[in-house]
Amino acid sequence: MILKDAEFGEVIVRKNAWSKGVRFSISTSGRLQMSVPQHTTEFLAKRFLNRNRELVRQNIPVNSPGTQRARDAKKKILTKKAREYLPYRLEYYAKLYGYHYDKCRLSHAATRWGSCSSNKTISLNIGLMQVPEPLRDYVILHELAHLNHMDHSEKFWAEVAEHDPKYKEHNKKLKKFSPGV
Ligand SMILES: [Zn+2]
Q: DSSP E strands: which ranges in the chain?
């Protein structure tokens, strides 16, 4: 359930079978989240929010409704750009260096640029569209190397180095950016 609130914008209400009281937290998008007991109605959730407005203001750094909207718009644009670019770039390098992956997924995790699962699905963060190309390529080559080494062993890094000799520099520069949109 989503409440529209003049002050806090969209408030995400999650019903939780085990929850006895109401808990406030913040979502990765900077929206206010409320965890409420299973049978809470919209009316009760709103009332609870109104009663706790001051507490939320003081304790939870909620993005303003304008910031929430701007972030949504930015995410939409990045997703579109990423969809038109990342799967093809991944495919390009996989073919070039003889890797076989199963699927390419786009993610918008707040803390990870990419991942490679044991069933050979590679996830790439849409935030990569905001970093310089050599760093973006480094992440792709890093995840591809995980197809052969599911760890960060010496052998793994040797394989990354083979395809991206400047990987150390790229890895370091990437830390100046944040994957979260
Ligand atoms: Zn890794």
A: 2-5, 9-16, 23-26, 32-37, 103-107, 114-116, 121-125
Contact 45, 36 (CB under 8 A): yes
For residue range 35-85, what is the model confidence (pLDDT) as tens digits? Answer: 999 999 999 999 999 999 999 999 999 999 999 999 999 999 999 999 999
Q: How many angstroms separate the alpha carbon of residue 153 from the centre of ligand 1?
A: 10
Rounded to the nearest whole angstrom, what is the distance from the C-alpha of residue 149 to the centroid of ligand 1?
Answer: 9
Q: What's the 16 CA to ligand 1 centre distance in angstroms?
A: 34
Q: Ligand 1 centre from 74 Cα, in Å? A: 27
Residue 122 lies in a domain: yes
12-30 residue pLDDT tens: 999 988 888 899 999 988 9
Shared domain for 89 and 6, answered yes or no, is no
Domain that holds residue 118: 73-174
Report percent pLDDT > 90 for the chain. Answer: 91
Among 130, 126, 146, residue whose Cα is nearest residue 86: 126
- CA of 85 from ligand 1 middle (Å) equals 21
Q: How far is the CA of 146 from the centre of ligand 1 (A)?
A: 7
Q: Which pTM was predicted?
A: 0.80
Q: How many domains in the chain?
A: 2
Q: How far is the CA of 63 from the centre of ligand 1 (A)?
A: 31
